[in-house]
Structure formats: structure tokens, C-alpha cells
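Catalogue entry: protein

Sequence with per-residue C-alpha cells
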Amino acid sequence: MTFEQYSTLFLRRWYLVLICTLLAGLGALLVGLFLVPVYQSTALVQVVVHSGNNQGDINELLASNQLVQTETMLATSDPVLRDVASRYPALSVVQLSGMVSASPRLNTQLFAIAVQDTSALRAARLANDIAATLLRQQQGAWQSEDASSQQQLQQDLGTTGQQIDNLKSRLNALQRRKVKDTTQSDLLNGQLTTLQQHYSQWQQALAQLELSEAQSNNFLHIDQLARPATTALRPDVSLYALLGLLGGLLLGSLLIIVWAKLDKRIRTADDLHLSVPWPVLATLRRSTPPALPLHAASLNAQSLNGEAYRLLRSSLGFVEVDKPLRYLMVTSTQTGDGKSTVAAHLACYMAKAGKRTLLIDANLRQPSLHQFFDLPTIKRGLSNAILACGSPQLAAMTSSRPVLSSLTAPFVSAGHTGPTGLTGLTGPTISLQDYIHSVGIANLGIMPSGPLPPNPSELLDSRAMQRFFRSLECCSVDIVIFDAPPILDLSDACILAPNVDGLLLVVDVQRTHRPALDRAHTLLQQTGARVIGCVLNQQPSGDDSIPYISRISRSSRSPALSVAVPASPAVSPTILPIQSAQEASKVVQHR
């Protein structure tokens, strides 16, 4: 489908998009209002890194980012969460792990501990408890490690001090001797110096460790305590409503597209062109059924479809330039599409234009034209004429009906001298004046179906039917319109189709489906019928998407009215622009 077709489709089904959008938006709004609100509280913890002026402190400062990342992960570790959950009987470690999250703040020494809960107060308490538990556990770990190191250093200091005291005692003993042993004295002095150096180093290490312990007691600091939230984190009712509206809009659009794909009905001329190559000659709007019987006064009224029939009449006038369209069959794919209505009105408008028109009810199973013109069902008609053509001598002897000049004169050839005096034809023919009836409309004669035969298909496919067509050639009429049965229901229309000059297919936009139209297209191709075009019937009056006469060429769009002129099978159809209905009527009358 083209963009224009999609636009037309959305303009036609806009209410579906509106309904889906409103319902989805309202539903999302109600869901957001009835969902249990969730609150979030956040505590900020700072990692304090003590640095000096030496290179080691600078390296520690560079590693502070890794320390922040480490503490962030430890904040949600199992030891911390287990300790916190033990103080909340209704809360498990698994539940708490799904409620808490920790994340570092970019380019800072801060990380946030966030807790989401249905209670704003409990969310704040949990966030603060997790931060405090993390600080306590980390300080305890550092203090335990420092205490172990201090204990080891103190032991080393005590051992070294005892060794120093022993060496000093030995040196004092050597000095009290009368005989001096300088070698032993030098050795002891060297050992004493070494032990004193070690002792000094142990003292410095212990002092440094005590300083580090003092600093480690506050390397984590709660910078901001969590507070109960005043507004819920979710649901965001406005966001829910917006997403619902967008979802409804998409759903409505998708439904329209799916509907268009699944809907097999022929609603527009573009839909028709997707199935068959035939032009749309006219579009008839949906209106109230016409008042019966049809008469000249009703046709003079400004009806809704009057202009459409006039344009259809003009289109048919341009079907064949060299050979006028004389035999026209009007049919449809199924019963109830309005083919009889179209045939009756088209015949009336043809007669009003001065064309001598003969309307024949070729539906020998369920005829209906007699109802349009208030003709008795006992009137002689097509079935009688075909039977008479089967035995023309008998028809000549039994034809005793008086000739009515007001009716039969237009339908008798100039060379006609009596019931059997037909000239210029090969083979037997009969006069059809006994089967043509006047209906009070100038230039219009009606041939009803006549008595219904038991074998309509055999009758229409008989040699008598061929003689009937030869007899029609004697009638001085401009056009003969056959109201034929539906194509798919019966074989009668397919039998008649090869014998007429053109076929007009009536398509009801409310009932005709693409598969049925495809089958009709196949049947008509097999029979060799020449389809002039289609008439879209029952188009909604408020739908302006289709003009009265379809513009066949999609590539060229002009404000002028386009009338399709189907050519022979070897020649492509052409388009003749007609600027107005009056100009078209003048051209037809001129021809």
C-alpha cells in the first residue's frame, strides 16, 4: 500500500486510534494510581584518605578511587546485610539484598547507599543502619589487624630490651676486671649498638602503627544521613499515563493496519485496482432505496446519484470510438450487490439522453426488473422471445399483437414490413415487438424475463439464443442493456458474456470481498468477456476518498474528470479528460 492509501485508511479509521489511545492511557493511569508506592532513601558515605608529602602518600591518594570502589561493594556484601537483617525480624537477607544498592559518585570519594521500600521511614532507617554497620565492621577489622601488629612489635621491643640489658651487664662486668679484654669488649659494644638500632626501629614502627590506628578509626565517615522520602520513587503516574497513551496510539495504528490486511472487502477504487485491472467508471453513494416504479418525474429530481449515472453514461459513450457499444451486460459477483438497480437507472438515463435503449431482464431465475417498472409478471419477455426464435415460423403465425407506434416504432428497423418481413439478415429472425413493453419513459423499452423456464442455462446457451441476438440486430436501438445474474452464483452470466460488446461489473463496497472478485476475474478471463469497467455501489455518503469516476492513472493526478475508454485486448486502455458532465453529454449526443 502507498502512503496515500495509508493516509486515507487512517483518516477513515481515526476513531479506532482515538479509542485505543484513550483506553490505554486511562488504564495505565489507573494502574499507576492503584500500585503500592515505593520510596527511596539514600545515605552518603565518605572515604577519608590521609596523605602526606612523600611519594608513598601520593600513591595512596592515587589508589583512593579503588578504595571507594571496594567500600561500595562491601556495603552490599552478605556480612553487612546479614548483620542489618538480624535487627529486622520481618526482613530476610534475600529481601534486603533486593532493596539495597550502592554506587560511587563520579570524581569524588563518596558513595551512596540507597534503599527502596514501601515504607519511607523504614527505607531511611535501613540506609542509615547499613552505613553504620559498614563503618563498624571496617573499623573493627582495622583495629583487630592493628592490635595484632602492636602486640608483635611490643614483644619484639621487650625481647630486644632484655638483650640490650644483658649486653650492658656483661660490659660492666668486663670493665670491673683488672685485666682488660679489649677484643671481647669491642665485640659486645658492636652487638649492643646493633640491638639499640633495632630497638629504635621497633619503637618507630610502634609509633607509626599507633598513628595509623588512630587514623583508621575515622577513614569512613557518614557524610549525609538518609531521610524519609516525601514523594514516591514509583510508580510515576504521569509517566505511566504517557506510556499508556503512546502504547494505545501504536496499538490503534497496528489494529488499523491489521484490519486493512484482514478486511477483504472492496471499499475504494484503490482496493479494487489491487485485485483487478478494470477501471472504476462511477461510484454510487449509499442512499435510500428508490421509489418504485421508476418514471420520468422521479428521474428529473435531483437525486444523490443522478450525476454519477450521467457520468457513467458519458463514460460508456467513449468506450469504443469506431464501433459504438450496442450490447452491454450488467452483472455482479453475488446477489444483492445492486446490479438490477444500476441497470434500470442506467437505462433510464440513457433514454433521457435521447438514446433508444432496450433493457432486457436476462435473469431467468430471480428476475426483478418488472418491479422497477411495475410490469405484470405475466408479461411476455425474454424466455418467450428465445422460444420463438427456436421456431420462427410459429412465432410469425402467432404474432397478432397490434403495433404501438409510441413504443415499438423506435425499436423496429427501417426495413421491417411485418412479423416475418425482416431483411438484410442471414438465417431466420423474428420481430421482437411483441416482447418489448413501454414503461412511460421516452426512448426506453423493457423486455422482462417472461415465464421462468426450468432450464435457464440451456436456454441461454441454445441456438435459439443466437437467433435472438440476430433478431436484436433488426431493432433500431442504440444500446441494449442486459441485467444478468451474478457471475459466481450461476453460469448464466458467463454464457451471455461472450455475446455482448461489453460487461459492466457492479461492486458493493459493503459486501464484495477480494477472493470473490478474484474468482470473478478468472471466470471472465476464461469466457473471453470484455469487461468495460466497474461501478462501486453503496459507498458511504460521508466518504470523500473516491470520486464519482476513478482516476485510473495513479501517476498523473489532474482536477479534470477522467473517463476510462477500454480498448480491444491488443490495445491498452486510454484516458480521455472531460471537464464537465455537460460537455460529456454534448459529446455523446453529437456522436
The first helix runs from residue 3 to 12. The chain has 22 helices and 14 strands. Confidence is low (pLDDT under 50) at residues 397-410, 413-426, 544-591.
